[in-house]
Amino acid sequence: MSTSDETELCYPHLGNSSCRKNVRPHSVSVSIYTTLASLSVLTVTLNLMVIITISHFKKLHTPTNFLLLSLSIADFCVGFLYIFQIILMDGCWYLSANWCLFYSVICLVLTSASIGTIVLISIDRYIAVCDPLHYPTKVTVNRAKMCIVTCWCCSVFYTFVYMDILKQPSLSYSCIGECQAYIHLIAKLMHLFFSYIIPVTIIVLLYVRVFVVAVSQARAMHSQVGVVTPHGSLKVYRSELKAARVLGVVVVGFLLCLTPFYIVLLNIRFGAVNMSSLVFVICLYYSNSFLNPMIYVFLYPWFRKCLKYIVSLQILKSGSSEANIL
């Protein structure tokens, strides 16, 4: 075997039993690695800011913000998954089979938790806009925390059920140097159904309902604002509506990043799925974890104010948790 052929193998000394690399120009490879590394750092940093902000400032301890905190924790962890994608960019897996299995499990847990949290956020906004009078009694901080814990527990349970249907990645290698798993037809349909069709249907139906109710209530309040609508109620409603719009942007961004992955997954033949062949749509999906905190920066004034507290180290001062950042 020639030297030029050996450079295309993940493990040249293993010959034909080794997987082949995805050969790219050096400049292209450097650009891809730099972009992924930058996204990893920014995703981890920005979501850490969200976690610190909501955890530290007591004024932000609301059911909606705790849901955002859960989403940010998942996004924060996703930032570290870019490391595995960087490894897979040339189509070679240089770590052990156990690490491949670990990556698959963690990825599924985090993505399932993110999807579940997005559904909870949609339900929260639905109740806040469509039933604002009963929202404080129906949606409490304790109930929000219970829902979040349940969501993460269900994500872990779903992951182990799904992975039990899959064969071990180490048993389905077609060559040495890849991280792949044989996806059984039942597992593929189950994942499509529970991780995409059901959540997306719930999210879309709830936000369509929120939009219809918001428009009708806005018209009614506009015509009666000077007659029977208390100013305080109008202010609260506008606040809830603004929160619904912001979180609606989060949901839209999530769906735009999520959908391509499932389109590609459906177009791949049933059987072995090579992780490197899905690298683009997986990275696009991961990029949503960077997009979410950016949405908060541009659309939430309180988040920008909290960032100033953190960057200027005012957060270290005594009593800073009681600051009025709203």
Please state roughly what percent of the residues sit in beta strands, choosing from under 5%, 5-15%, 15-25%, 25-35%, 35-45% or over 45%.
Answer: under 5%
Total individual domains: 1
Examine the coordinates and then state which fold CATH places here, giving the name of the CATH topology.
Answer: Rhopdopsin 7-helix transmembrane proteins
Q: CATH H-level name... which superfamily?
A: Rhodopsin 7-helix transmembrane proteins
| Number of E-type strands | 2
Q: Shape from CA axes? A: globular
Sequence stretches where pLDDT stays below 50 over 5 or more residues:
1-6, 270-276
Oligomeric state = single chain
Taking strands numbered 1, 2, ... along the chain, how are they ordered across the largest sheet? 1-2
Q: What CATH first level would be assigned?
A: Mainly Alpha
Our Rg estimate from Cα atoms comes to: 23 Å
GO molecular function, one term: trace-amine receptor activity
Pfam family, one: 7tm_1
Keywords: Cell membrane, G-protein coupled receptor, Membrane, Receptor, Transducer, Transmembrane, Transmembrane helix
Family: Belongs to the G-protein coupled receptor 1 family.
